């Protein structure tokens, strides 16, 4: 047990809890040599690590983890590897992307400082010590065009309008990630899967934009018809 705990980076108490919960199988592979001594299969090391990662990084409850592992442990491992690879590539791309300093953004764009601060408080913008990333700048430019087109405070339009879209997109994105990972994990090499995800980003933005335009027009027509 002490060797298993050291190799997996998880305490003996935690491993014993996993055993009691049936997360490491029925224990038929455990060789007991005495009441207080047993040898565990080498495969337990990776399985314990996987359980801990699913529990801490994915916030999955143990009962769900047990179901996943009982169903297809190899696929669960593939899911973790795929998520890690996508996040690694995203982090590397983020490090390479040029960020625009806060002072430069304020000088180049007409959006009031108070609005920039409020958008950051809402989590719509995510500046750091190096400034704003490309997506932040695109949001700022979109907000400027909104205001130039008449969407301003005099008509009741504020930065809080962005929350409507943020809150609507969050469950959509969660479902998108679930579907992507479910279809790619274990079926495609992690690097190739990450490339597929990256390649879909731009056309997805175009798809959402085009569908939004169609739905907006359809809703205006419906509202006019309802009003007689």
Automatic annotation (TrEMBL):
InterPro entries: DNA-bd_dom_put_sf, MerR-type_HTH_dom, MerR_fam. Keywords: DNA-binding, Repressor, Transcription, Transcription regulation. It comes from the Bacteria. SMART domains: HTH_MERR. It holds the Pfam family MerR_1. The keyword Transport does not apply. Residues 1-71 form the HTH merR-type domain. This is MerR family transcriptional regulator.
